[in-house]
Amino acid sequence: MIRRLAYSLILASLLGPSLAWANPDPMTRDQIVANSKSVVGFSYWWGGAAWAPGSSSKGKCTPKGSSGCPNCTHSGSYGADCSGFVAKAWQIDKPTALDKNYHPYSTWHFDTYTTWWTKPAKGDAKRADAFNYNSNGAGHVWMFDKGDPWGSAYAWECKGCSYGCVYNLRTVSSYYGLIRRKLITDPPACKKHCEGTAIIDETCDKGDCAAYAASCVDDSLGVRCVSNFCPAKGKTQVCLPDAKNGKIATCDNGALKDQGNCGAYGAWCSTALGGAAKCVSGLCATSATAKPVAGDLCYNGKRYTCAPSGDIAEAPCPADQPCQTAAGKTGPGSGSCGPKPCGNCDDGNPCTDDSCNDGTCVHAASAAKACDDGNPCSEGDVCGAGTCKGMSKVCDDGVACTTDSCAAGACVHQGDDVQCDDGNPCTADLCDKSGCKHNNQDGACDDGDGCTVGNGCKDGACVTGTAARCDDENTCTQDACEEGGCVHTPLTGACSDGNPCTEGDYCAQGQCLAGKDKDCDDGFACTVDSCEAGGCVHAGGSPQVPVCQGSGKVFMPSPCPNEPGQVRICSPGTSCMTGTCVGSDAGSSDGSGSLGSLGDSNGSQGTKSVAAANPSGCSTGSSHPATSLALAAAALIVGYRRRRA
Amino acid sequence: MNRGMRAAMAVALLAACAPPQPSLSAHTAAGPVQVHPVAATASGGSRLAKAVPTQAAHADSAAPAIPSGLRVRTVRQFAWGSGPSQLGHVHGGEQNPEAPMALDVDAQGSVYILDQVNERVLITRRDGTLAQVPAPRTAQDLLVATPQLWLLDRLVGRELQRVDLSNGALLQTLPLTAVAEPGTISALWAHAGDLYAELGHSELVRLAQLQGASRPQLSVFGRPTPDGLRRLTAARVVPNQVTVQVRRLSDADDAPPVRALQATLPSDVQQIVELAADAIGRIWLVVDLGDAAHPVRQALMWEADFSDPRRADLAPWRGPEETLRPARLAPSGHLFALGLTADGLSLQEVAP
Fold first, then answer.
1. Inter-chain contacts counted by CB atoms under 8 A, chains A and B
2. How far is the C-alpha of A416 from the C-alpha of A214, rounded, in Å?
3. Which of A565, B115, B171, B207 is 20 to 30 A from residue B292's alpha carbon, by CA?
4. CB distance from B73 to chain A under 8 Å?
5. Mean pLDDT by 10 residues, chain B (352 residues)
């Protein structure tokens, strides 16, 4: 139960103070914006969130060095860091006075949970939402106001120690995500109205009439977009811009309807006859605003008569006297029956000789002569085949890395450093009038070997730094750097898992796995056997001193009441001395003869039970029995104290 | 504008209100399919619904990729730090991740990187040597007007500083009183010997002569081109499309554009990074595409007659660090751009 309560407390701290049974009140976006505006000018306060709107006491953050907070100090009672500001402006997790320091959430909370906020798509951002970033211990959050055409955002934010809390236009990195406060009460619906050319509808959504060549009008007919080509009221026909296309439409209280196209019938849309727009024959009008031509004209060799109304009537010429306009054209224009004139045949080209032949202008190429083609970057211009041409001015300066060109008659030689790029990051490559130069520069560089780090430029070459460190401090992997990346190859075999109370640890799939638990059973029922720091500990019972039974056996009296002791047979090559099996070399111990390991079933000793009342049957064989007994007793006492500890 | 409202307006006003433009159609037929001028139409209100798309990539499978053809070289790499050839970086804890905010290039090809974390401008000359001049910790943009340098501190000092490049001396401080909200400045811009502040990537407000003398206030909508004939604006129109609108400088601000270039990109456009024209009228656009897992930065360039669009893939900005001007068109007509990795910045040059 206690453990479950502890877990609950830890979880509560991770989730933030929401589990403290507090609730925020509903807010409007305008209320959040008002809170946000009021923080501008206050200091950045690492871990703080308190400001008194309008107060001249802003607090002060003083950086220590250039790395930013937490290497900083704050003085005064007011200021906020980024997450403190947003949580306070949002009034989460509970209503709190702005001037009361309260900092319930960090960017990690905003990133990890949705306690009092949601995570809409970034493209759905609205005023008083926030953009949050958190990764690997770094985070920032700021309040969104509106976007701009480039994808930047107007934002309120407590930026950092040097800046304090500001309102600014800032970039929106793709690393940021959108968060939105829960319990936002949208503002009441708008009254439909105009703001300049913009039209605001009942949901406060904004449209721009100007985008549709219209203006916003609010009159007795209501709020609406009125086309720039229509009167606000009434019904009439109008010509639309670019009347050559003959576009005609009906205006109905400012809205364009029933679009038609006079051009489909070879006509113009014209208002030149007064009153409403109408379709006028293209043969009888010279523009959309000119009145129809009244009189005879030619079109495709036929003679027509235009009436003042814009209508036409055909009046063919005699067969031997076709209709001809003054310019000999077939399009609209006054004409008559008779021979074809040419009109003005001058084509303005100095390299042609112009003349008229049976109503057709002839432009023959003139003889070669000097002329001007109008291009200051050409030389020796002469007429040829009816056109004036010259030779391009030669601007080559002989330097390969310059781009040579002629501008307004003068040669320009633009150096292009990119053409001098030798691919060496340790040289600064530049192009001047003598050609490419490659000057040494320092700085970081890439030596092409991903298994090195800290490479730097020296004397124009990239000098390799140090080998990349790939040691993962795992004895079950073989570590190496290959092709720019660390490779950790799993090994097999024995290892140590760091726990001395396990034996036979082994490598598997690159990890050191524990072997079996060390066996500390001493065979006595009343003792509690355990392993501590690699040694066996036997708690309980009465401390006893082992004695020798001859040279090959050790008798261990039972520490338990009414329980027989144990006889343990020394391993081959060992003999019992002062209650323990020792090696044949005098004075040396083989490890199995220590008193501390006497209770271990380590295979060096056999064990059998004998009557407890038979200790005298065991001869120690020791030449110093008193000393051996004292050592054995001391060791047992030490073990007993360790168990108690 | 909701869908129903837009449809109602469209029906009421008829598409005939925007007459076809034969010259644009002809250009469409002559030019590549994917990047083409479109009939000029006013865009609706800009909402972040369009400005920050996150849906899956909207690649137009029917549209061929914009051809590559711009040349790219890495000029230099910088590691993070405060050493003479390193750049400052703030990343960690509850604060705005920060890297160099801007760069500019002078007529000699020297690149000026605003290393505001180290309170300086780091200058990389063409011959590889480095120099530096001091800058405010909260500077966010810069503009080189040799032999001087303008520094923009829009948030804290709310002022401009004019610095002598020969010795780093502060020559002038110009409060940003001509701008109601300096935090909305999106760029410093030079045109015809004057210094402008661009607000929200749209309106430019004249602040002073480049040499510091005062000038009457003047407002221009869009970025003027060096020849003084045109001005440019750009916008994201759908998740994977951007449009560049070209207007005559002499036209009224609300005049329809004389040309609208539209580019369909292979994935969602996160943001437009830079827009400028060079001395001979080529139009350059830099965009960030993709998402955090696969960030892409592309430079696009149209010739002066709006034809022959070409592309280059640049080192992307792999991180949440804020920037303001990470790419800039040099007087030479080459583009310079910064790319970000966990280890530092790379400086790249793009040429036609």
1. 299
2. 50
3. B115
4. yes
5. 35 26 21 26 26 29 72 95 95 94 96 98 95 97 97 98 97 96 98 97 96 94 93 91 93 86 92 95 96 95 92 96 97 96 92 94
